[in-house]
Amino acid sequence: MAATRDGYGDGLLALSDNPKVVVLEADLGKSTKSLHFRKANPDRTISCGIGEQNMLLVGAGLASSGYIPFASTFAIFTERAFEQMRNGVARPNLAVHLCGSHGGTHTGTDGSSAQSIEDLAIFRTLPNVVVMHPCDDISTKVLTCQLPELGKPSYMRTARNKTPVLYDGREDEIQIGKGIQLTKGNDVAIVACGVLVHEALEAAKILSVDGINASVVDMHTIKPLDTDLIDRLADTCGAMVSAEDHSIIGGLGGALAEHLISSKLIPLERIGVPDRFGESGEAEQMLEMMGLKSHHIAAAAKAAIARKA
Amino acid sequence: MAGMSIEELENMARDCRAEICKITHRAQAGHPGGSLSEIDILCALYGTRLRVRPEEPKWSDRDRFILSKGHASPGMYALLAKRGFISHDDLESYRVLGGICQGHVDMKWCPGVDFSAGLLGMGLSYGLGCAFAAKLDGSVRNAYVMLGDGELQEGSIWEAAMAAAHHEVGNLKVFVDRNRIQNDDFCEVQMRMFDIPAKWAAFGWAVKVIDGHNMTEIVDAIQWMDSITDKPAVVVANTVKGKGISFMENNPAFHGAAPNDEQLAQALSELGVSA
User: Fold this and answer.
1) Dihedrals φ, ψ of B65, to 5°?
2) In chain A, which end has fewer C-beta atoms inside a 10 angstrom radius, N or C?
3) What pLDDT digit, counting tens, does each position of A225-283 carry?
4) A4-157 architecture in CATH?
5) ipTM of predicted assembly, 2 dp
């Protein structure tokens, strides 16, 4: 078990050898895990205090001057700097890499104030911005290390709490913009991101007991969406479920729906946080309360299959 | 052009004022008032100090100039045309579909523009990032930022002000165009800001107050900025919105309104410039 935020910290540290990489902090380096880079590279780490709006645009200025800035804070606070991301980063297409940790209701007991459930949706609306939400520390590290070559801005959500490690020794499979098929089945496709990838894998086991074979996909990159993979899965499975610890509105499920409506008209069921806020609770309690557990996904898969023509 | 005399700078500012009136008249839109209040400072900066290359606008070691009050773009475009970054004909593209002179200054469209501004409260942070980059590069280049006074009402300005002082960013130089008028009305009506120089000083900046239309004072202030190397420096320039055109001066109506035919003729006449 490991947290994706640790993967981010490991990735930044691994980028120490790139002299153009600069890290920006907004007082939460201990939490987002940028502190490892800071300790190794104090001259290339800039404390922006508790000021996210300023941080994003300091990043823009650095990016326009040839540097590769990585800025991180809690996912919820990235939202405060949305207009800076929109106007100062995305619009001039400056390669600032923003990481929001502690995303989703899985964040737990801090309660609804800290549980960002709309970050993926809002950043997905911005032209030029790549949006990612990896599911384990290994893939988070690999994706982070790929960002200096991206040449455009990005938003990556990481999670506070530990989740199973999936990709140890499988680093070569991970590439920005390419979903990863974790299981193969022809009855239904479950397309998940972040914490819910693990719930999706559990859901596939539940379904297999009933003789239902599911393809589970880790869609760590939500934008640009891997539409080739989605179309192949639609053809193969004929029914799909999205799964994310994010609002049911505008996230991965929204992205799948937007694509499928003009591509493959197959049944799609969406698992996500209903149109409501969370509350204080343990991570597992929150997933249960919000309907995000493996048994919810399995039920949604059966509902999607039942809707096949 | 660097090292221009006071008289040459004043002549350039007069010509830019005429262009500001023509540009906004042609578009029948835009922001003449704040362009006329800022233009003397822009001319002095580009005419005496800024290390830039019009023939190589993306020269990586250039000084940066960030017009944070990016809606006051007619002044910037008039200057860039005078300076040779863009052609005089380019000025006709102001606010026209596909034109390089976008409504608000945009680095993706117009050579010589260092930041896509027009969203108040953003330029100072961006300039701070540029200044950090210069320090990391070990370069002598500066980042200059022009702020409006109404813009100081944006909270993000003070995030940046605090960060710049904390990090002792001595290559960040700021002008506040204190023209006392914002979109809807006088600043004192919309949101009083009390003692602006004292606020900057309290944030840890070196502060100087000048008459933003006295070319000698402006040039001296630019040199004073160069003498400050251990902390960020700000020049609060007392200016007149609409400066130089009688009916625009101190008139909130010309924050965001273009002159009509008769007003353009009068403006050019007052400036002593032919149409």
Assistant:
1) -125, 120
2) C
3) 999 999 999 999 999 999 999 999 999 999 999 999 999 999 999 999 999 999 999 99
4) 3-Layer(aba) Sandwich (3.40)
5) 0.94
